[in-house]
Specification:
The longest helix is centred in the C-terminal third of the chain and has 16 residues. The radius of gyration is 18 Å and the shape is globular. Helices cover about 40% and strands about 10% of the residues. The protein is built from seven helices and six strands. The protein is of the alpha+beta class and about 180 residues long. The N and C termini lie far apart (about 35 Å).
């Protein structure tokens, strides 16, 4: 697994609340269950307040918009979110630049984390695996990583890169 730096890891974990389990290959949405359990939410997203009951639908919309903007350095599709939930920039002693949400809540807190990633040119390094759709952080020097993993590093892991390369090899062999 490719851990993202700082608060971006919480955004990556949030995006992976929608997943495509390896066993069933049927989409699963963990967000409603996670939002209902405040203790589990705080453990997974320490910098994001637990969502209010009416905020879950908006969180689902945000997750979809963020997943659609993965890998882009300037995702224009997020502008409507920043219009709905403005982020204020402050300069302080603790950190040179600090981002603060005008409104409270989970959606605003996630947008603050996304703003920091955009400002530090880290957002484009978040990508979605073309096979399992898992969101990962691309640590490669030239930002060229395609799959979540080349090897199944854990018992429940999937080697999407190796699987794709084997498929391509077999396809070339069939053609020749």
């Amino acid at each position: 697994m490719s851990v993202a730096p700082g608060g971006l890891e919480q955004v990556r974990a949030f995006l992976n609340t929608w997943r495509l389990p390896h066993e069933t290959r049927t989409p699963a949405d963990d967000l409603p269950e996670l939002a209902a359990d405040k203790r589990a939410w705080r453990a997974r997203f320490p910098e994001v307040p637990p969502p209010a009951p009416g905020e879950v639908a908006e969180l689902t919309e945000l997750r979809t918009a963020l997943r659609e903007s993965l890998g882009q350095s300037a995702p224009a599709g997020l502008n409507t979110w920043f219009e709905r939930r403005p982020i204020r920039v402050t300069v302080g002693a603790e950190s040179p630049v600090h981002y603060v949400a005008e409104n409270g809540g989970a959606v605003s807190a996630l947008l603050v984390l996304v703003t920091g990633a955009l400002a530090h040119d880290l957002w484009a390094r978040l990508k979605s695996c073309p096979d399992c759709r898992n969101v990962f952080y691309d640590h490669s020097r030239n930002r060229s990583r395609t799959w979540c993993a080349m090897y199944a590093e854990t018992p429940d892991g999937r080697a999407c890169g190796s699987i794709a390369k084997v498929r391509a090899y077999r396809s070339r062999k069939r053609e020749s």
